[in-house]
């Protein structure tokens, strides 16, 4: 069994003791060494704990640094947004001022336009009142003219009376002269063919028929004619001027033709032929008398 070099042998211990070295010094030295060991351990433990705490603190510092960086970044972004907002607010205020100025300008322009329009309306109203006054005057004059024309028509109607025809058929209005005939034409109720027929053996065309004047008696206003229509010969004997001389044709639909003479002269009669509208067809035309040599009565 080997003996550790750090442990004194019995002989050395005896030598030391015998040399007079106090025992308590050895004990004190051992206590000091133990204290130093304890202190070293405590210091090491403390240093380890401090190192760990420092590492944790460093980790926390890193986290705090990252959070601070994020906060700074957010703060920078917020500052940028704030600057942009301030710029926009400034632009909005400028735009508002510009809009207010434009609105005031428009209001003034509208006010000027309203005044101009009011003046134009006043002038137009004045002109319209003047025109209405003139029109009222013209209407009054026209009304008087219409009343006068109406009176004339009533007078003409009074002169043109209805009469019973020679076939006991009531005639329409009878013209007594050319003026009355023109009024009948204007009314347009029937077709009218004016004629002036000379005494002759040859028939003369009057509208859709042919007429031969056989005899006249101017002093009695009488005449005798022969009418040829629908291949039939109809004699109307000793008729009087102003008398409706009536006869039927195949297509007259029950309405007779009327032959009216308003002037009986020597070897000549003047008057008109009237036919129903549906039978006469077309506008009436004056009869063209055929060339004939008047015969003596």
Low-confidence stretches: 280-297
Number of strands: 10
> What percent strand?
15-25%
State the end-to-end CA separation: 209 Å
Strand order of the largest sheet: 3-10-9-8
The ordered H/E elements are: HHEEHEEEEEEEEH
Largest β-sheet summary: 4 strands, antiparallel
Radius of gyration over C-alpha positions, nearest whole angstrom: 73 Å
The total count of helices amounts to 4
Q: Based on Cα principal axes, name the global outline.
A: rod-shaped
Summarize the structure.
The chain has 297 residues and is of the alpha+beta class. It is built from four helices and ten strands.
Structure notes:
There is one protein chain. This protein is an alpha+beta fold and 297 residues long. Helix content is 54%, strand content 22%. The chain has a 4-stranded antiparallel β-sheet with strand order 3-10-9-8. It has a 4-stranded antiparallel β-sheet with strand order 4-5-6-7, with no helix packed on it. Strands 1-2 form a two-stranded antiparallel sheet. It starts with 9 loop residues before the first helix and ends in a 17-residue tail after the last helix.
């Amino acid at each position: 069994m080997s003996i550790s070099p750090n442990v004194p042998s019995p002989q050395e211990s005896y030598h030391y003791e015998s040399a007079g070295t106090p025992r308590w010094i050895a004990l004190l030295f051992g206590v000091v060494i133990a204290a130093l060991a304890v202190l070293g351990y405590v210091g090491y433990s403390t240093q380890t704990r401090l190192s760990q705490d420092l590492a944790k603190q460093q980790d926390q510092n890193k986290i705090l640094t990252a959070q601070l960086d994020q906060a700074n970044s957010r703060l920078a972004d917020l500052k940028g947004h704030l600057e942009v907002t301030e710029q926009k607010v400034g632009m909005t205020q400028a735009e508002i001022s510009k809009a207010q100025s434009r609105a005031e300008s428009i209001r003034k322009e509208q006010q000027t336009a309203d005044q101009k329009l009011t003046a134009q309306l006043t002038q137009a109203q004045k002109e319209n009142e003047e025109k209405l006054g003139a029109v009222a005057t013209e209407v009054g004059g026209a009304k008087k003219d219409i009343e006068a024309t109406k009176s004339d028509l009533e007078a003409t109607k009074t002169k043109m009376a209805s009469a019973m025809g020679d076939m006991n058929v009531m005639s329409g209005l009878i013209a007594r002269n050319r003026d009355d005939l023109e009024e009948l034409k204007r009314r347009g109720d029937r077709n009218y063919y004016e004629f002036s027929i000379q005494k002759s053996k040859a028939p003369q065309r009057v509208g859709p028929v042919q007429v031969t004047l056989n005899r006249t008696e101017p002093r009695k206003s009488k005449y005798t004619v022969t009418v040829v229509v629908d291949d039939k010969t109809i004699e109307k004997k000793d008729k009087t001027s102003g008398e409706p001389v009536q006869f039927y044709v195949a297509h007259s639909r029950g309405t007779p033709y009327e032959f009216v003479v308003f002037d009986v002269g020597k070897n000549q009669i003047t008057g008109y032929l009237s036919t129903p509208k549906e039978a006469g067809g077309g506008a009436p035309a004056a009869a063209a008398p055929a060339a004939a040599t008047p015969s003596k009565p």
